Amino acid sequence: MGNRKTVIITGASRGIGKATAELFSAKGWNVLINYSASDKEAFAILRNLQLKGSEVDLYKADVSNRRKVKQMVDYCLNKYGTIDVLINNAGVSKQSLFSEITVDEWNEILAVNLTGVFNCCQSVLPIMLKNKYGKIINVSSIWGMVGASCEVHYSAAKAGVIGLTKALAKELGPSNIQVNCVAPGIIETDMLSKLSFKELSDLKEATPLMKLGKPEDVANCILFLASEEANFITGQVVSPNGGFVI
After folding, report:
1. Which of 5, 19, 43, 214: disulfide with 84, CB 3.0–4.6 Å?
2. Global pTM value
3. pLDDT in tens, 173-183
4. Which pLDDT score, from 0 to 100, does residue 1 have?
5. Pairs from 189-193 (Cβ < 8 Å, separation ≥ 24)
6. Which CATH number covers residue 114?
């Protein structure tokens, strides 16, 4: 393992998380791929990356479960010895009129999208404080910046991620730990699968670059924030959105 750095990526079996795991592994990182439900996809990416000679592993854990998150962090430390970067990407979304959101739906969206970030950050903090080094990158959304109709619970959770990022960056800065946020725009992932062709076309037209983003566009932003070139950047929200939100 040598001088390889180690990263935990939550929700990394599909979409943005998968693209991020592929990119980091290609750059020579030790990558712990977290997933919760997508067993088939998770084992497929593990096999593909191992065939390329990458140092990767899987860990199944619901990030909203604090005990399982702690076990995942312990597993990573036992295997790789340290954790240099945490990428909080795991998320769920659901479209509902605000008046029709149930308490259970509200709690589920916040548990994964916001409490999951809290759980993972607190769990990796002891090793990062001990090392006086670490980077935490939280994945929010443009809807956390400007809000989305019929996604009030999702928007509220993702706005919370931005607030958490900024506050935690101030608190951890003296310990040489950077905390930043990536807030993607409209990205071609499974979350768009329920949209019609016309709805997707309208989203493209509303984007100044006249196209939707790809998971790799977000992964490249995350990799930069995880790099040594970003050592003087903390508490920031970087939004790869093609100009959809300016």
Report:
1. 5
2. 0.97
3. 999 999 999 99
4. 45
5. 189/14, 189/15, 189/16, 189/215, 190/14, 190/15, 191/15, 191/93
6. 3.40.50.720
- Please confirm, yes or no, whether 133 is among the known catalytic residues: no
Q: Is residue 222 part of a domain?
A: yes
Q: Would 120 be classed as within a structural domain?
A: yes
- What's the rounded mean pLDDT across residues 55-84? 98
For 128-169, write each residue's pLDDT tens digit: 999 999 999 999 999 999 999 999 999 999 999 999 999 999
Contacts for 186 with CB less than 8 Å, ≥ 6 apart? 142, 192, 203, 207, 212, 213, 241, 242, 244
| Helices of type H across 37-151 | 39-51, 66-80, 103-110, 116-131, 142-146
Check 35, 59, 80, 154 and give the catalytic one: 154
245 is a domain residue: no
Residue 55 lies in a domain: yes
Residue 194, token pair as written in the block: 């329920």
Torsion of CA 16, 158, 147, 167, to 10 degrees: -130
Q: What local confidence, expressed as pLDDT, does residue 194 receive?
A: 81
Nearest to 122 by CA among 181, 77, 66: 66
Nearest to 81 by CA among 172, 5, 177, 179: 5
Gap between the Cα atoms of 90 and 242, Å rounded: 22
Q: List the domain range (segments joined by +) for residue 87.
A: 6-238
Residue pair 16/184 in contact by the 8 Å Cβ criterion? yes
